Amino acid sequence: MKELKKLNSAQVRRMFLDFFIQHGHKEMPSQSLVPVDDPTLLWINSGVATMKKYFDGKVVPENPRMTSSQKSLRTNDIENVGKTARHQTMFEMLGNFSVGNYFKDEVIPWAWELLTGDDWFGFDPKRLYITYYPKDHEAYQDWLKAGVLKDHLVPNKDNFWDIGQGPSGPDTEIFYDRGQAMNNLPEDDPESYPGGENERYLEIWNIVFSQFNHTPEDKYEPLPHKNIDTGMGLERVVSIFEHTKTNFETDLFLPLIKQAEEYSDNKVYGQNDADDIQFRIIADHIRAITFAIGDGALPSNMGRGYVIRRLLRRAVVAGKKLGIDDPFLSKMVPTVAKIMADYYPDVQKNEDYIASVILSEEKRFSSTLNGGLNLLNSVIASAKKKQHGLIDGQTAFKLYDTYGFPIELTKEYAADEGLDVDEKGFEAAMTEQQERARKARNIDNGMGVQKDVWTEFTTPSQYVGYDQLTVDNAKVIGLVQAGKHVKVAQPGDQNAEVIFDKTPFYAEMGGQIADTGVVIDNYGHEVGRVMDVQHAPHQQNLHRIKLATPLKLGARYLLVVDRLRHLKIEKNHTATHLLDQALRNVLGGHTQQAGSVVADHYLHFDFNHFGQITATDLAKVEAMVNEQIWRQLPVTTVETDIESAKKMGAIALFDSKYGKTVRVVKIGDYNTEFCGGDHVGNTNEIGLFKIVSESGVGAGIRRIEAVTADDAFKYMQERVDYLQETSAELKVAQVKEVPHRVAELQEQLKQAQKSQEALQAKMASQQAGQVFDNVQDTKNGSIIAAVVKVAGMGQLRQLADQWRQKALSDVLVLGTESKGKANLLVAVSDAKAKALKAGDLIKKVAKDIQGGGGGRPTLAQAGGKNPAGLKKAMEDAVKAMNED
What we know:
The structure is a single chain. The protein is globular and about 105 Å long. The longest helix has about 35 residues, at about 350-385. Helix 6 packs across helix 7 (about 275-295), helix 7 (about 275-295) packs antiparallel against helix 8 (about 305-320) and helix 8 packs across helix 11. Strands 1, 2, 3, 4, 5, 6, 7, 8 and 9 form a 9-stranded mixed sheet that branches. Strands 13-16-20-19-18-22 form a 6-stranded antiparallel barrel. The chain has a 6-stranded mixed sheet with strand order 30-31-32-33-35-34, sandwiched between helices. The chain has about 900 residues and is of the alpha+beta class. It catalyses: tRNA(Ala) + L-alanine + ATP = L-alanyl-tRNA(Ala) + AMP + diphosphate. One of its GO terms (molecular function) is zinc ion binding.
């Protein structure tokens, strides 16, 4: 057998990428786990997830050959993490991709060269087995030509990649034979084959030949462009090179397991299967949590935040099982950062922030965890008392869903007390919740069917709007109406889609909205209005025009941007950059842009931040932005390569959208960012910046809305007008006296309310003396029932307190009218509550006031919309007390 190389994770990752770079591929950066401009995904869950826009034809890539090592996150089978050798939540997917460029006859020889070549992985060919789709004769022949042994090619009818509507096709999978010593099954077991459920034959690579469109009519039609999509699990391949039984003994996880050992109660990995599961859960989950928070997601009770919270709680419970009682996960963040520093240096830069978020969540969960234990102990005590020996499924699910208790933990606690858990009931409750979530989510993860109305149109178009808002003699080089290329577009309901050879109209991008304006012919007549501008697949500016007269392919026109609107957008865009920098300066470098809208009359800026922003910090941010405006900083732009731009200190938001040449916007000595948008020439053009609001718009996402220039002046003038009106109403001589006068009025109101409450209490006491004298005897005890005139439910409860202290009767029923509504209260003495429940009695009489209510056995209350029924409610209460 050929000797296996010794490569660590960083070397394997780099070798894979370098191989495909040498074969003409562009290395694409690993994108954020939080999807950008893709609402169909909760997380980036594969390498191809970041390539969807290329494969469905929405965007044509700069290079049709791409390669990446993409961090990914999946939690669909989280319950298996730690129990198996390969299940993980976060993993890295190595991949190479072709968008209509090469196909089987090229990718298969490359795959074999990478796997077996002495300069590359250097695997022994005898260790490799290939599965293929039985009808895919081309792939079979290409593997034979590449050098694969015939008996190492295994047909498998499941080798067809199809996720529903969109691209699909046969695939081929590569397995590495780790030898029978690594197997968990006998050699003659029916599952002991490449593709079977065993540990001997390890699947390391899947190559998809995307050659069909799966249409809505459930047909498979040839794609206009055949594509290649591959995925190789980094952790799996590293386990081969490091000769480990599972992924968790590799250099990607083992340092985390060793650190967890230090915190545990003398537990050692590899000595006990039950403990090993907990160590693996911790190592896996802290990686996922660290990267998810580093990419801007934060713990919460919904969406991505719920996933983080669930992972963190599972890890904390796993720690509890190992005897770790104090917060420990936050201390492991630097270890994650060190392990991944080679390819993900940003984790180290933000490790303090990530650790602080995790520590806060750990502390929050400690009280929740104790609450769960209290509930579990109570349920166990009740089950033992009733001697039925079973914890019901609904309770087990509540422990899981509310308190983060895995079913295994509940079973373990129960077993210690000689009890079982209703697992079927638990599964039923789990299934019911998943079905609700599925219906609510209604997410389509599939790619769109390729549309090539503009895909084949490669003629370039030039955007000149950075310094020109009017372009004469612009030629129509592309014209589509009603989804078809035409020579003449006609006025009507269908807007024309037009590409000019040059244009001053900005296409919506980076949060900046598109320009609007007019198209004018050679006679000075308006041909149509530009309503919107987007990017075509090859990035030309695609104008959507509402036509007044016909527009012709090849004709030339005058293009005029709405200048005033455009200048307002410029002011807001530059202000957005100033705001972004101010937030970093005031709140910390962890803040990241999570979205923005730059419009003509406002801007809003979304960013990641843990916790609310104080009024003091918000004021600092606003003051800092205005300071830069009044410093009259020059705003300059330069086009350069991406590496030079980064050396300039330019902030890159989403690396994948930048090509070889990038545009950098520099605002004096204050801010430098990658940006393709429009900006003012000097910050003094902005004039004024005013924050309108700050709020939370999602888990860990804050939004600032702001206005500039004349909109800011109008906003502030409105507030001045409101203040002056208030000043006049308060009859104060100067506006600055308004706060003092308001404080005086508030104090007067406070004193008046106290006086009113005292008077109402006095009146209630007087009524109590009259009401409490009227005690009636019934078959089931004594009762006081009366309609009184008090301020509301609060004073009814005060009367009930007096009644209870004096023990005047077995039952008290009171009613009052307040603000046109009826209020009812029923109180039952402690001694009588065993035979008569307040909640039962109030349900019988609440119908008289057209209402409903409930409460404890000794006190219940109800509200209704029929005060006229209060008297009858009293009569019915007495009647109910006389019933057998």
